[in-house]
Amino acid sequence: MRKPFAAGNWKMNTNRKTGVELVSSLAEGASDLAGEDVTVAVCPPFVYLESIIKALHNSNIAVGAQDLYFESDGAFTGEISVAMLKDIGCTYCLCGHSERRHVIGETDELVNKKVTAAINGGLLPILCVGELLEERKSEKTNEVVTRHLEKGLAGLNDEKVLAVTIAYEPVWAIGTGLTATPEQAQEVHLFIRNLLSKMYNETIASEMRILYGGSVKPSNTAELMANPDVDGVLVGGASLKAEDFLGIIKASVQ
Ligand code: 13P
Fold it and tell me: What is the pTM of this model?
């Protein structure tokens, strides 16, 4: 049985004050659900991670980073290692978010190094996969998702892959207000699960959580979550308002 998972990706938003206020409201509003019925995580900007982790002390809301660097230490100006994130109390880390792939230029090979470093260092990676609009239009969705998964998970054995959460985020649905229909989401999620089954085995595929991301709102969460292979949501814009994210957390518990 896969526990629902609601994760908020704040991207490059908030400041220390608004971030702390946001998580204080979430901790209060989700105290009866978070941890028990649903895994809840927020991914603030690096510089606020420590303040947010302190503010969430005593709550069951986990904190994740939006990125990491795969080397353990050394001359990598501007980068943040897994050990640093563990040191301040992070649990999760997004890897291969579409904005990092398409705006910053991360390759599948780099994403794989990050996923691997996260697991080896004790962080739980959330590996983001998903197609661009032109790729969907030219019916390349399955091909793109296959490449993201096969390359992103390369070299991970059965035990290690179980640390990974997959997030299917069609790029055309991110920040556009265009959500994949529940049928479109289920179709790709099932494809992903079948692929995981082929890459690993049926038990592993049935245990791994696959989140949907792309214009998730309180009003569309329940219909997305009603699909058998949608195990949670990765939320951008709507995770920045306590009321909206609380609505999503509640709607993700069926
Ligand atoms: P939106 O919910 O703003 O579309 O963003 C989705 C996303 O990119 C989460 O990682």
Answer: 0.98
Domain 5-251, CATH class in plain words: alpha beta
Rounded-to-integer distance, Cα 147 and Cα 65, Å: 24
216 pocket-lining for ligand 1 (C-beta < 6 Å): yes
Q: How far is CA 30 from CA 171, 186, 222, in A?
A: 29, 27, 17
Cα 8 to chain centroid, rounded: 8
Q: What is the CA radius of gyration of the chain?
A: 17
What CA–CA distance (Å, rounded) separates 147 from 143? 6
pLDDT tens digits, 191-234: 999 999 999 999 999 999 999 999 999 999 999 999 999 999 99
Domain boundaries, the chain: 5-251
Active site residue 97: yes
How many residues in the chain? 254
pLDDT number for residue 179: 85
According to DSSP, residue 32 is labeled T
Q: Using the mean position of ligand 1's atoms as its centre, give its distance from the Cα of residue 74 in Å.
A: 32
DSSP state of 158: H
